[in-house]
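Hi F.,

I've been meaning to write this up properly since the lab meeting, where we talked about keeping a consistent format for the predictions we share between groups. The idea is simple: the sequence comes first, exactly as it goes in, then the structure tokens exactly as they come out, then a line or two of notes. No screenshots and no reformatting. I'm using this chain as the first example so we have something concrete to point to.
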Amino acid sequence: MYSPKTWAVSGQELWQWRDEACAAAVAAAISSAEVDWLLQELAGLDRLTLRLESFKHWPQVQLRLSLSELTKLWQKRIEARVPVQYLAGTAPWRQFNLTVSPAVLIPRPETELIIDLAVIAAQSFSPELGSSAAEIWSDLGTGSGAIAIGLATAFPKATVYAVDCSPDAIAVAQQNATDLGLSDRIQFFQGAWFQPLNGLEGELRGMVSNPPYIPSAMVSSLQPEVAWHEPHLALDGGEDGLDCIRHLVAIAPLYLKSGGIWLIEMMAGQAGQVVELLERQGDYDRIQVHADLAGIDRFVLAHRR
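Output, unedited:
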């Protein structure tokens, strides 16, 4: 059976590396907690062991890469501002640990709530079915597949159609679905928004999306971790940030069942415009704005009339 190669270092060596890495992080205005997160992923150390520094006295710690390679990796974080999730190749999201690469946005904690909103909306519409209904959901602009995986887990009898225009993103999302045993529940399609779903008109219980919503002129001014490394295709929402959202507002009624759920993430400050787009379109009711855990208006939910 294949087992990945590991490198052994002494606990004292790793403790010294960690101490120097934390000092470099502080000097670069990066949270030193990222050092420990990286060591959790690459050395298999838990948070308590790291906090107590008990590994310092171990004769050996197994690493997934050599100490010199780990140093080069951390230098990329400090000097090139590469996000730590890309360095480790993983990102935590809800109860999952997802594979990520520069082909996909790093799943954010604030997006986790979108799954809970979908569940509440589905139960309020059809409480006798709840999460047991054999319905069809879509995740448009799936990226890493986080939302599709969240939906497939929340609705265990549903089929989820996950769409992305990037073949590299689709590959990452498929890997995550396979790793989590959900590849038979999620169908992946490369294409733009609803285009690959022709033939499913009027059949979707819900459409969920975290579309590009950053105004074009703002993208380059985002923090370096985002502007320099995350895919601009998944960030740039056009001149006012609403190009993709306008498209989803216009086209979704063709695919949603009556009562079907339209649910998106947006940027702070866009709620009023998104609500106006939905109202003006005329095919939606029960339009709601929901805040994220920081109290920022982050999601808009509506139902197909």
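Notes:
The first strand starts at residue 7 and ends at 9.
Residues 11-27 form the longest helix (17 residues).

If this format works for you, I'll send the rest the same way.

G.
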